[in-house]
Each structure stands twice: as structure tokens, then as C-alpha cells.
Amino acid sequence: MATFDLNDDGLVVIVGSGAGGGTLGTELALKGIRTVILEAGARHNMEDFVNDEWASFAQLAWTDMRTTSGSWRVARDFPNLPAWIVKAVGGSTVHWAGASLRFEEHEFRIRDHYGAMSGANLLDWPITRAELDPWYEKAEDRMGVTRTNGIKGLPGNNNFKVLEAGARRLGYKEVHTGRMAINSEERHDRGACQQIGFCFQGCKSGAKWSTLIAEIPRGEETGNLEVRPNCMAIRIEHDAAGKVTGVVYADEKGQLQRQKARIVAVAGNSIESPRLLLNSASTLFPDGLANSSGQVGRNYMRHMTGSVYGVFEKSVHMYRGTTMAGIIRDEAHHDPKRGFAGGYEMETLSLGIPFMAAFLNPGGWGRPFTSAMEQYPRMAGMWLVGEDMPQETNRITLDPAVKDKHGMPVAHVHFDDHPNDVAMRNHAYRQGAAVYEAVGATVTYPTPPYPSTHNMGTNRMSAKPRDGVVNRFGQTHDVKNLFVSDGSQFTSGAACNPTLTIVALALRQADHIAGAMQRREI
Amino acid sequence: MREVDPRRRVSRRSFLQSAAAAAPVAAIATGLSVEEAWAEGGAALSPAELKTLVKVARDIYPHDFLADTYYIAAVKPWDGKAAGDPATKQLLTEGLRRLDEDARTRHKVAYAQIGWEADRIVLLQAIEHTPFFKALRADLVVSLYNQPELWPKFGYEGPSADKGGYLHRGFNDIDWLPKV
């Protein structure tokens, strides 16, 4: 394992160790490029993960202060927890459920396909599905995605079997146990899924891909990668010519350190990444680093989400086995006849009793609430996840009043649903309920969105510098040795889960950075 | 299908380690009633206040198959917090006093003596937006449902990794679905 000097100015310094940063750092190290990852959270081993929702939340979740506003219900129910993401080495790949789907071709060109939409800020990606396909292939092989590369699907659990039976009765065709970065058989020194459940709490068997167990150790073995846990990036510095020179961070003792860099890549997820750029404002970059477009922090997307729980006469025990155990994809296409643009996926989901109480109907109480809780063993559950429309006013800003323990303004998250998001959610609630009613559900519960797990779009990719923050390689338009490497690059959110696309983009970006370094362009 | 035995199966040791349930272990372990548990009062609250607090907790999240011990466990930490923090003590005593006043105005008896739950719910709805109610409910949704001892009663089995997951313990044992 490498240890690099703070004054070494030949390094790539990455902020964040999740799907974007962890993959980028590992791939650069494998290419022989010396890299440091600064990770705000601690490093846990998979043996340390706990099958206990609140205890695990305390261990892994990003609970540093954030503030919220807007008409989304999360701002009312969880005003200081806009997102349910991870602060630990591995980032939110420790907590993710494993769904690994490719964007559809049209989802890279939503301005083209959906047209101008009032109140939305639609833009086409500067890359196409065809350009990304080779990188999707690499990502799927690396992550061991089921139903790709000859890897068989996972077996369906009870929760999936209910979903599948209801879906078939409704006439849905594309129903299966998903494309999952969870081993259905031993692969790449990791074993097969034991159907433990608790995928969100960190996989204790190692069957689920994460940068913590499947990437970073490979990078470290090369001697080219150093991961520094408990190191919170404070600001990125630059020289008079406007090139970034390093990152100032607070180490585990709270002492400020300055790590010099040849290249800086920001991968702190879509709330912290724009916060860091905005907190790095200077006389040369008065509105924040790489923000000449004014788009840093804007176009925050969180997916149209919601859940439906269905109650049956007999037991389901939905919590047994893989949390996201299967998918219905028939509503994922773009069909404006349904009354909205874009599409959505229906994916099984289960919560344990502690989180069901917290999330079923936040703020709810009395007999209607407890009656629902008492149906728990007879419940099946699904998560609805679909494309939400980018809006300039949905954005991350620096809170004018609240500061963190290092004296830096915290992130303020503002979000309002677009009418398209609302129309899609209502459609998804109806279809979700219909799936369960088709196999005898006596009651269904349309459950409101949880704090955001899919955070996207706040440093978006654009062909023209005036429309976005980064170019087709995630390189900022304004600063050529500054990159963005997480989901904040997304120009649109697509219907599906974002992680596979973040990993594919990170692999492609590593290739680009290595080439540019070799050619002495950066 | 393998069903879940609702009887208490969590070991006393693991129960003692549960943060949410740490304070009132004595009451749970011996199955004390509200009267017995708090005959002497708490650190900050009187026996009557503690009894009302338990009643309010049950009215917020009524589960008729749960004994008072679970609700005692859930609200007991408030007494400790009130002992260490005058603002918390004031929040609780004033909130409980108002409930009793409302109860006497409408029903001529204290809150805990109102016979029907539905009548007590009307009083709670009237204070739903007060800091007292909001703090109590937000805490209770964790402190009640995060007690491992009550999970089997809801058909939830809790941790599974230490048992090898559900691969050989019924992850796909559903047997009643219609053939499609």
C-alpha cells in the first residue's frame, strides 16, 4: 500500500471513494498512475457490518448537517436528511442494492425525444449509448453483473415471486431477477449470495460488488493507490493561471492538510461535489470553481421514486433474501400516451420493522398506521424508480447560515417535483397496486419517496461550456486538470439505477486521463 | 412456508446490548406493570406523569398484542433526559399537564382515565403540531419499533447473517401463489 507525500505534485487526487472515485482511483492505479483518494468517512471491513437497520445507519450513513427546502415531502419529514447515502470508504456502493442497468439510447438524448418541456432544463448528453457501450461491457464484467457475461440470474425470493406472479397476470413481459452486481456464483474471489437480506446495511458475505471490497484493494496492491479515510475535503486550490494545484482537507484529527496534485477529480456524490466546488470560490472563480456557466449545483435530480407495499392473506416474509430481488421493466420505455415523458422501473424492495416504521408513512400514527405495521409478515414491497426532469431551480447551494465543524457552509438542497414527475409517480402507484391486486392483495400502501439514494446532475455534462459544468469526459469546461467523476456529471437521470453508468463513465474517464497525461496535455 | 414464532426468543444478553432498550431492562426482564415499575416515580417525572406518558405512547402506536413493558421501555429514556435537561423536563411536564387539562375540560377525568381510545385520540389530534407531540412521536417511532424483543411479534426475524442467511431457511418458500 502506497503512502504519498503531501508535497508530491505529480499525483491524481480524488475526493470520494464510491462508485465514481473508487473505480477511477483503482483503474488509474492499475494503469500505473499514482493516485490518492481522500475519503470523508471511516474504513470498515465487511465483517464489521451489522444486520441491524438503525445501528448500521449510525455506522454508515452520511448524517453531517444539511438543510432543505422545496415542496418535496422529504424536506418536511427529514429536513436534515435529504439523502440516504454513505460516509465511509466505498461510499454508497457499500449500501447500494446492486441493480446494474444500462441507460437506453433515447435517455442520452432527452431534449431530442421529449422536446421542450415547461419548467424543465432538458439537454442531450454529449455522448451516445453506442459510445458508452464498450465501457458498459467492461463495467459489467468487472462488477460481475448477472445476466451478462454468461452469469446466471439470482434465484427469486418470496418478494420477487409475488411481484412476478402479479406482473404476469397483468400481462407484463420483461420480468426477471434483475441484472445485479451480486454474485449468483463464485466469481473474482467473491462467493455467491447467501440470501441474507440487509443489502443496504453492507453485504457481510462479499457477494455484492462494492469499491470497498472489489476495487480499492486491487488498486492498493499495485502500490499506486493510497486511500486516506476520515479526510474531509474543504476546498480545491488553483494557481494564477487557473489550474488546480491541490486539495485542502481536514484529517482525522481535524488538522488542515494541503495535498498537492497534478490532477483533481471530484467524486463526493451530487450534494457534496457541487458544495466543494462552490466552497472553492476565489477571486479568479468568484461563483465557485468551474462555474462560469452558473450550472454548478443546478439540475439536481433524485429520480421519481415511491414505493408500493401490498398486503396479502398469507405470509410473504419479504425481508428474506436479496433486498432488490427482481424487476419489471415494461414501463421503462418512453411512451407519452401515458401522460408523461420518460419511464420507470418497478423493483422489489423490503425494509425491516425499524425502517418500515420510519418510512411507511413518515409522521403517521394511530390505528391506521399500526394496522399497516401489523400486516408486516404478509407484505410484499416494490420500489418505483423513474426518470425525473432536470430543473435549474432544483439545486444545491451553500447554506447562508449553517456551517460545519470546519467552518464551511453546509449544503442546502432545494427540490420541487416537476409536473411530469408527479404524473409518472401517480401512474406508477396505480400500476404497482395493480400488480399486487392481481394476485389477491387486500390492501396496498402508496408510500412516499425516501430520502434520496440516487443523487444526480449537479455538475452536468454538456457539449457547450455555457450549458453545463463538464465535457464528454467529465473534465470541467473551465479548468482542464479538474474532473468530476460521480453521478453529478449526469445530463439526465434515465429510468434506471445510476451506479453502472457511474462506473462505466469512471472507467472511460480513467482511460482519457491516462492518455492526456501521457500526451502531456494535463 | 416457515412461519415466525412470535414468542420472545432474543437472548437476555443481546437484549441488554440493544441501545433503545437499555434503560428499562429491569421492568422488561421481570414483566412489571406500569404501577410496579414506577411506584417510586422516575428521576424527573412523577408516577402519574410516567403513567400518562405510557398511555400516550400506546395511543400513538397502539398494538394490542404488546404489553405495557414495551411502551415503558420506549418512553423511559425521556425521564433520564428530563433529569439532565430542564428544557426537556418542561416540555414533558407542560405537555402532559395540558393533556390532562384538556381531558378534564371535556371528560371530567385525567387523560389516562378516559375510557375510550377514540376520545383520547381527539385530544392528541388537537396537540399534533405541538413540539411536545412531535418530539414524542418522532422518538417513539424508533424507540418502540427498534426493540429486538418485539420484532418476532411482527413476524420479523432480525439479523440473519449469523444464521447463514435465508438460503436454506425459506427465502423462496412461498407456497400459495396462483399459477400463472
TrEMBL record, chain A:
Ranges of residues in domain Glucose-methanol-choline oxidoreductase N-terminal: 85-304
Annotated signal sequence range: none
InterPro entries linked to this entry: FAD/NAD-bd_sf, GMC_OxRdtase_N, GMC_OxRtase_C
Domain Glucose-methanol-choline oxidoreductase C-terminal: start-end pairs: 390-506
Keyword terms of this UniProt record: FAD, Flavoprotein, Oxidoreductase
PANTHER family: LONG-CHAIN-ALCOHOL OXIDASE
Family named by the database record: Belongs to the GMC oxidoreductase family.
Protein name in UniProt: 2-methyl-1,2-propanediol dehydrogenase
From TrEMBL, chain B:
Listed PROSITE patterns: TAT
InterPro entries: TAT_signal (IPR006311), TAT_signal_bac_arc (IPR019546)
Top-rank lineage group of the source organism: Bacteria
Protein name: Twin-arginine translocation pathway signal
Source organism: Methylobacterium isbiliense
